[in-house]
Amino acid sequence: MFKTINIIRRNKEEEIFNILQKMEYSIISWLEQSYHINALSILQLNGGNWANTFDVESNQGSLIVKILETTRSSPTEEIQTQILFYLASKNIIVRNPIPNIHGNCNTFCQFEGNNYQITVFQKIQGHVIEEHMSLLTSNVVEILGENLARFHNELSKGGFDSHYKLWNQQENLFTQFDFGQVDNSIVDRYHSFFNKLSHEPMQCQLIHGDMHFANIVLQKDPQEIGFIDFDDMILGHPVMDLSVLILDYAIMTLKSNDEIIQKFVVPLLSGYFRLKPLTKEEILMIPLILKVLELNLYIQCYEIRDSEAVWIKNFYVNRTQSVSRDDYIILSREELLVIYGKIQ
User: Fold this and answer.
1) Which of 68, 100, 178, 332 has fewest C-beta within 10 Å?
2) Are 99 and 50 in contact (CB under 8 A)?
3) Which range among 69-83, 183-197, 220-234, 235-249 shows the weakest confidence by mean pLDDT?
4) Half-sphere exposure (CA, 13 Å, Cβ side) for 17?
5) What's phi and psi for 20, nearest 5 deg?
6) What stretch of H or E contains 146?
7) Is the peptide bond before 75 cis (omega within 30 degrees of 0)?
8) Strands in 146-265 per DSSP E
9) Tens digits of per-residue pLDDT, 238-273?
10) Does the pLDDT at position 50 exceed 50?
């Protein structure tokens, strides 16, 4: 039925292998019928909470195919498509959706008894920073800060905020896990901050929501930095994306606090402030958001039993003696005030 192709399989377990094989051949058929695209090879990149993602080499170049269960994706994928087209028109590098022969970007496919929504994207050529941390020089970090500021500026101007009321807001952003016996003083102050934002909506805007190094692509020219995976876009404050980046850098590099500040935080915020200055009150929220993120990760270490969780657990054991202490592990307010004074 299908022409011979090279299907690359990562998982050799029989049951998953069979499911993936059916999914891959459904993708091949669907690409031919809806796009007139001939797939040459398929590689599954990941199977996350939201989507299965495939890297497809085709007669029309490199593509990314994302498959989501329709019960979880609609109508947010339609809105996401509008945003990606908008960002691409403003020269923000994103995985731009490709319309099919019917002029739609999000089409539907049924296999394995479920309905799925499938979107095809142009692939950003470059290095995912998570896999090439050595490329993250101070100069590149500064450019990353500038690009993130441009990205936030465009999202704030795009007129999409009202649509994203579909998502849970403020309190659910980074407090989705059970904090158990953890000292609530930090969480209470965090909630207080976002309650304030909810009454001052101009401070809130659309943000990426998952801005770590696995979702940032560096091209040959370091000025060309792309952003991918917009499934967690939410209404929030831009310092949340900045905070996720800072924490991810700390976890990925395991550097000392001083090195994290000098090699990453200072150049990141210096580049960011050139295009999007923040108030002192806004930037002083970074240590609090970092602390909440750290608590989330720490708690997950005791709920998820795999090698990655153990690794993160060891990271925290080495950095602090008690997760309930009301202190700041990576950045203090005092340190951030000094940085703020330098980069204004």
Assistant:
1) 178
2) no
3) 183-197
4) 8
5) -65, -40
6) helix 138-157
7) yes
8) 205-207, 216-218, 225-227, 234-236
9) 998 999 999 899 888 878 788 889 999 999 999 999
10) yes
Distance CA 204, CA 155 (A): 11
Cβ within 8 Å of residue 111, ≥6 positions away: 22, 23, 26
Concatenated DSSP letters of 271-312 = HHHHHS---HHHHTTHHHHHHHHHHHHHHHHTT--SHHHHHH
Which tens digits make up the pLDDT trace of 284-325? 888 877 877 776 665 555 444 444 444 444 555 544 443 444
User: What's the whole-model pTM score?
Assistant: 0.80
Cα–Cα distance for residue pair 193/173, rounded to 1 Å: 12
Q: Which residue has the tokens 């999202």?
A: 155
d(CA 25, CA 296): 39
- 240 and 230 Cβ atoms separated by less than 8 Å: no
Exposed/middle/buried for 63, CB within 10 Å: 0-12, 13-18, 19+? buried
What is d(CA 279, CA 21) in angstroms, rounded to the nearest whole number?
52
Strands 106-111 and 114-122: antiparallel
Residue 22 scores a pLDDT above 50: yes
Q: Which residue has the tokens 């020219």?
A: 221
Q: How far apart are CA 295 and CA 291, in angstroms?
A: 6
